Structure formats: C-alpha cells, structure tokens
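Budget justification note: compute hours in this period were largely spent on complex prediction jobs such as the one shown. Inputs:
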Amino acid sequence: MSSITPQDQLAGAVAVLDDFYGRPVLSPRCPPVDELVFTVLSQNTADVNTERSFAALKARFPVWSAARDAEVDDIESAIALGGLAHTKAPRIKSILEALSAHTAEPDLGVLDALDDAAALAYLTGLPGDGPNTAACVQLYSLGRQVMPVDTHVHRVARRLGVIGAQVTAEQAHPLLTEMAGPGDAAQIYAVHVDFVRHGRRICHARRPACGECPLAGMCPSAGAY
Ligand code: SF4
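Corresponding output:
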C-alpha cells in the first residue's frame, strides 16, 4: 500500500508543475468588484478574450454605477468580444445592482469585516455567483486563503488521486484549501494556477496528453483515457 498521502501527492505535483510552467506569483490584481466582474467574464472564455471584453466594458462604463444603470443590451454589446455575452450581461447588471443596496457605487467593502466563510456565503448569495467565482474574488483580489476550484482544478486533482473520484467541485474547495496549506495564500494560488494551466494545456477533459505530461510518473490515471 502506498504511504503517499493526498497532501504529499498535491505538494509533489505542484513542485513539478512549478518547474514545468514556472512558479505562479500571487499579487492582488484589482479591486473586488472588478475581480468579480472579471471572473464572470472569464467563464468558458479564453484568457485573452476575457481581458479584451473586460477592457471594453471598462472603457464603455468607466464607473460600475454606469453599467448598473445601463440597458442590458448596451452591456451585452460592450462585452461581445468575450462570448456568451447574452448570458453574462444580465448577470453583471444584477450583481452590480445587488452591490449597490447601501452605496451609490457598487461596493464589496462589506467583505473587510467578514471572515473567509462569511465572505464566501455573502458572495455566493449574489445573483448567479457560485463558489468558484466567490473564491476567485477572495484569493485573487483580497489574498484570502481560499482555493477556487474550477473544472480544470477539479479534474486534475481527481486524476492525480489528490481527492476522491466522487468528490464534487464544491466539496473540493475546503478540502484542497486545507491540503494546500491554510494560511498560505501563495501556495493556494500556485496550486490553483498550476492545475488550471495543466488542465488547459495537457490534462484535457478528453484525451489528456499523458505522453507529454511531467506528472505521468506519479499519476494513477496516466494512460487510462
Ligand atoms: S498523466 Fe495524464 S491523467 Fe495524469 S495528470 Fe498527466 S495528463 Fe492528466
């Protein structure tokens, strides 16, 4: 029986991926409302198109209250570059409205007074906001020790045996946060980014390129697909 624990497996995989892709470095990217909108735009969208559509949205609406008060069609046309604009535009408007309940400008300052669990609950209570989006805001913008688990992180973690095959993405958030090292936002960020990159480039959902994978020697799923 293997004596490798899931924590060991995770740490070993991240060390290899850090070498393979380069160690990801966490630096706060933008204010929480910006991060939230950016994450909505990033769903099912390539990074380059997310960045373009976010820049176009900010150019069209320099303050978030302007987007909140705009027609959905105007938001949709501003973010058309990124894809799924018809779905994302009303969602962005609803989120901005929800964030304006007590302030003239949409605001997430309320998070400052909340611990990680309460902040997660608040963010997932926003219109259409799931745990991955909430965790992205907490980690990327606020540097909180919370692991975002998108489809890539979930798939790579299961294939490597870091989490069980039956563990859902939602269940994986606290499990992977704990395994990566609570209190270590830099390592949580590295796990997240390494697994996202690996899922996109090599460990594809269909036909993963195990022959090119630097983790093949330690992966119980190598060659199984
Ligand atoms: S060996 Fe294959 S299944 Fe395992 S992590 Fe690499 S690409 Fe994914």
